[in-house]
């Protein structure tokens, strides 16, 4: 049974392409929404998001917004940065600085010395901070697969994030794996599209046509043995993704990995 109580949601990345739509849908659903920016204001005004509470803080420094995090029951992590070890910062923050968190800090320092890629990024910090603050649900916007021509570490860090987050029994975790949303035409695997980004519409149409042909014609057999198999997933709109995210927040029985088709299925049943 879906829980229709009003939730207090912190959206990390609430001013972004996907995050702003999640904020809008959550507000329409009667929830209280908080987001973070360094200025304490959105980058640009959005009439649909005028009731978002903006907090001045740094997503990479959870101590700057811990008070607001403590007032929330849900965290939605909608920021996606290429080539960052995504989950590893927000979840690693601990005001007490002891026990498990110290152990993770030692591991983190070892990894920093061994690898030039920054191990200490905001997604992990968000996760640890959420656990400390008593958050009940952690929603993470991941990706279904690696975009063409992008270093494989992009998707491995996403999977690493999912694995790390799922180990926290303190909160329910939900991982959405849409097609990646990026402002470059070549990187279309996991496409999330919107009318606000006109160039994504023909890409989505082409991907939908490709999906139909690969599923309904012999083309599908050929595609499965080529790198194009990663394109055989349905694109979703920002609204469909946002609907699914808010539905997951309201439904305590929904957790784990949500595929692109799962996003569409959940969105089609969601009612404000």
TrEMBL record:
InterPro entries, sorted: ComplexI_NDUFA9_subunit (IPR051207), NAD(P)-bd_dom (IPR016040), NAD(P)-bd_dom_sf (IPR036291)
Record GO cellular component, one term: mitochondrion
GO molecular function: protein-containing complex binding
Gene3D superfamilies the UniProt entry points to: NAD(P)-binding Rossmann-like Domain
Pfam families linked to this entry: NAD_binding_10 (PF13460)
Domain NAD(P)-binding: 13-165
Name under which the protein is recorded: NAD(P)-binding domain-containing protein
Native species: Smittium megazygosporum
């Amino acid at each position: 049974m879906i829980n229709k109580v009003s939730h207090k949601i912190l959206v990390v990345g609430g001013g972004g392409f996907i995050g702003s739509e999640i904020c809008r849908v959550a507000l329409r659903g009667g929830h209280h929404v908080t987001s973070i920016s360094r200025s304490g204001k959105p980058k640009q005004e959005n009439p649909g998001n005028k009731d978002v509470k903006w907090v001045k803080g740094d997503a990479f420094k959870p101590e700057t917004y811990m008070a607001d995090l403590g007032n929330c029951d849900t965290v939605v992590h909608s920021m996606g940065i290429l080539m960052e070890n995504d989950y590893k910062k927000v979840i690693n923050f601990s005001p007490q600085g002891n026990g498990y968190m110290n152990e993770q800090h030692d591991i983190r320092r070892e990894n920093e010395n061994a690898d030039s890629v920054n191990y200490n990024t905001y997604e992990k910090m968000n996760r640890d901070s959420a656990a400390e603050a008593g958050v009940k649900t952690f929603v993470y916007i991941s990706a279904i697969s690696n975009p063409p021509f992008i270093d494989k570490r992009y998707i491995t860090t996403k999977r690493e994030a999912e694995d790390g987050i799922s180990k926290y029994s303190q909160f329910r975790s939900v991982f959405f794996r849409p097609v990646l949303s990026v402002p470059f035409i070549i990187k279309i695997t996991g496409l999330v599209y919107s009318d606000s980004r006109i160039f994504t519409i023909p890409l989505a149409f082409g991907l939908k046509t490709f999906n139909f042909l690969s599923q309904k014609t012999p083309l599908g057999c050929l595609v499965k043995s080529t790198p194009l198999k990663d394109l055989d997933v349905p694109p979703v709109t920002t609204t469909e993704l946002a609907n699914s995210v808010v539905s997951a927040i309201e439904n305590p029985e929904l957790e784990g990995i949500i595929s692109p088709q799962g996003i569409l299925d959940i969105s089609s049943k969601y009612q404000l």
